Amino acid sequence: MVGAGATMSVAGCLGGTDSSGGSDGVQIGLLAFEPGSAPQGTAQKQAAQMAVDELNDDGGLLGEDIQLHVANYQGDTTTAENRYLEFVVEDGVDMTAGVFRTEVMLDLMDNIAEHQVVHISGGNTSPEVSQFLADDYDQYKYHFRPYGNAVIWVESVAEFAGYMHEEEGWDTVGILNEEFEWTQPFSDDLPGLLEDQGIDVPYNERYPGDTDNFTPLFDSLESEGVDAVLMSMAHTAGPAQIQWRDEERDFAIAGLISQINDPGAHEAFDGATEFAMSNTPGVHKAELSDQTTSFAEDYYDEYGVYPNDAFAYATYDGIKMWAEVVAQEETTDSETIVPALASHTYEGTRGTIEFNGEDSEFPHDAVFGEDRLRRVNFQWQVDDDGEGVQEVIYPDDLATSDYQEPEWF
Fold first, then answer.
1. Are 122 and 44 in contact (CB under 8 A)?
2. In the CATH scheme, what architecture does the domain 26-147+290-353 have?
3. Which of 211, 230, 236, 306 has the smallest number of Cβ neighbours within 10 A?
4. Crossing angle of helices 39-57/309-329, nearest 10°?
5. Residues with Cβ < 8 Å from 385, sequence gap 6 or more?
6. Where in this chain does the record put each Leucine-binding protein domain (predicted)?
7. For all residues of the chain together, what is the average pLDDT?
8. Distance CA 161, CA 196 (A)
9. CB atoms within 10 A of CB 155
10. What's the predicted TM-score (pTM) here?
11. What stretch of H or E contains 334?
């Protein structure tokens, strides 16, 4: 095992392994969180393997097969650093991908800068990651995020709340966020965006990420007379959803609830997700591009589940986009690939991917807009066969169903 620490440098291990594909082929390293058990890491591993398999079936890259290395970083910064160094030093990978937890990604940024190997993120969302590039682009330019960051998510959630304010009378809204770095924009920026639309926000609280009793929090929200609660959470959706439903709380639940973005969440939470809503980069029923449905169905055929959030869609798109640039440039060398990738346009599973430029607020995060990437808001509903389905309810042009009010309201 390579020792931890960002001070290790090995000659020949900077900026990819070889300009034309090494003797061991093209190497990709994926840092996944508990693949095989956690839905986030499982989706990253499945999507990465699917991308690599398709590329190899199509002849590989630079005349070589692509080899995918997968490491479980266990949600721990030291473990992630060790696994990363094994990838870039021992395995000599040409690019890395993955990482779900923001705290882990922030810790890895100096390693990525030192070893100068392109990293394409697949799940972390804090704008603090982009700030590294904004502060010192030349040092940190090797990081790309083909799905944006939480600032975009907040704006999308606020837009949806404005829609529900007009359509469903969400006049008073509470905000409830897990205490993690990526949720900070939901606490800081969301209240003002809601108030600008005439929505009253009497409640804005953060709670520990190991919380399992939501009854006191829900009591406080109900005492404020909220019509809905906008949540940002990635670890505590299970108890929150179950208690909301069992206690028949008199407010809707929406926001960015990462765990219920997982297509297997309805079954995993024993149906408690019904009527809950969340914001996501894509679900299989949202036709965001001409590739969305075919990718989702191929993924389902391969794994028996539909793609999960950015963990699947962005990991798959990111690897495919990088490979397209490598084939175009005929090299894996990072100093060539970084500027080419930064200026590339790619038609992916969620729409057109382009990256923000060096002088933007969020360098190398994906561009969002009507002709680029978009976010959707879905609601868990139950179909005629009793199966849970993620139905898009906003934006209107992508909607597959109308909003359903909880039956106990």
1. yes
2. 3-Layer(aba) Sandwich (3.40)
3. 211
4. 30
5. none
6. 26-368
7. 92
8. 11
9. 17
10. 0.89
11. helix 334-342
397-400: long-range contacts, CB 8 A cutoff, minimum separation 24:
398/286, 398/287, 398/288, 398/374, 400/285, 400/286
Q: Which CATH architecture has domain 151-280+375-398?
A: 3-Layer(aba) Sandwich (3.40)
Residue 107: pLDDT band by 50, 70, 90 thresholds?
A: very high
DSSP code per residue over 88-133: IIII--SEEEE---HHHHHHHHHHHHHHT-EEEESS---HHHHHHH
386: left (phi over 0), alpha (psi -120 to 50) or beta: left
Beta bridge partners of 232: 177, 256
Q: How far apart are CA 59 and CA 62, in angstroms?
A: 9
Q: How much is the pLDDT for 16?
A: 54
Of 142 and 25, the structure prediction assigns the larger pLDDT to 142
Question: Which of 304, 309, 244, 238 shows the shortest CA–CA distance to 279?
Answer: 309
What are the counts of helices (DSSP H) followed by strands (DSSP E) for the chain? 15, 14
CB 99 within 8 Å of CB 105: yes
